[in-house]
Write a structure and sequence with these properties.
This protein is mainly alpha-helical. Helices cover 76% and strands 0% of the residues. The protein has one domain. Helix 1 runs parallel beside helix 3, helix 1 runs antiparallel to helix 6 and helix 2 runs antiparallel to helix 3. The chain is globular.
Length: 91
């Protein structure tokens, strides 16, 4: 049985899906993850989908950094999450 991919790898794959506007694939990847960055990606999924209410829920669950970025363009938020992933991997 293969080991599960690290959460950071799954989040990175979900961001790749969002970058090409495949929010369904991104949603499938992050919906079972349990971390602030995964919640932030989940918020982006619902923002792209047009579900503002659900998106706000996930931004709130993700915390202050995500909430502060929620009005920024999708691509800017994707870049910010990628930067946070890289920072986390180095620490």
């Amino acid at each position: 049985m293969a080991a599960a991919a690290p959460e950071s790898d799954v989040i990175a794959r979900a961001l790749d899906c969002l970058a090409i506007e495949d929010w369904l694939a991104a949603h499938a990847l992050v919906q079972e993850l349990d971390s602030p960055l995964a919640y932030w990606v989940h918020a982006l999924v619902h923002k792209i989908e047009g579900d503002a209410h659900n998106s706000r829920y996930w931004y709130q669950k993700a915390g202050a950094t995500a909430m502060g970025s929620s009005a920024r363009p999708i691509k800017a938020q994707i870049a910010e999450i990628r930067q946070l992933l890289c920072t986390a991997e180095r620490s």
